[in-house]
Amino acid sequence: MRVVESDEIRRLLDSNRAMLPKSIPDLAVGDVIRIKIVDPSNENKVQWFTGRVIHLRKAYTGSSVTLRNAVNEVAVERVVPLYSPWIREAYLLDRKPTEQQDLFYLRDRPPRESACGPMEPPELTKKNSRAQK
């Protein structure tokens, strides 16, 4: 069974359908990541999600990551499969090494401790339009 799953993982990585493990290969609990997810029903609808990794499930193609962030003083969690074809981009924003395996204790803390950044897409860098003197 493991051989079949490892072949499937290799096939997904080679076909560029596994965006998250390819862009952030050494993902760990405590990291802050921003991902771009496409709606499966509407390819034109894109959603960005920024969150701190509070749990990392490693189960071959069934691997997933649980992200947590606070928006308007409300904590939001999202479980994202690592080998999802709907993940288009992923960025590592911050790395915060932890001693713990999971950060589920954040669920009992105030939402401001889970806050890790805006949910908006990353801004494009603007060139300085002023003339250089």
TrEMBL record:
Looking up InterPro entries in the UniProt record yields:
Ribosomal_bL19, Ribosomal_bL19_sf, Translation_prot_SH3-like_sf
Q: Does the keyword Kinase apply?
A: no
Superkingdom of the source species:
Eukaryota
Q: Where is this region: Disordered?
A: 108-133
Question: What is any one GO biological process for this UniProt entry?
Answer: translation
Keyword annotations of the record:
Ribonucleoprotein, Ribosomal protein
**A Pfam family name for this chain?**
Ribosomal_L19
- Example of a GO MF term: structural constituent of ribosome
What GO terms fall under cellular component here? ribonucleoprotein complex; ribosome
State the family it belongs to.
Answer: Belongs to the bacterial ribosomal protein bL19 family.
The UniProt entry, under PANTHER family, shows: LARGE RIBOSOMAL SUBUNIT PROTEIN BL19M, RIBOSOMAL PROTEIN L19
Name recorded for this polypeptide: Mitochondrial ribosomal protein L19
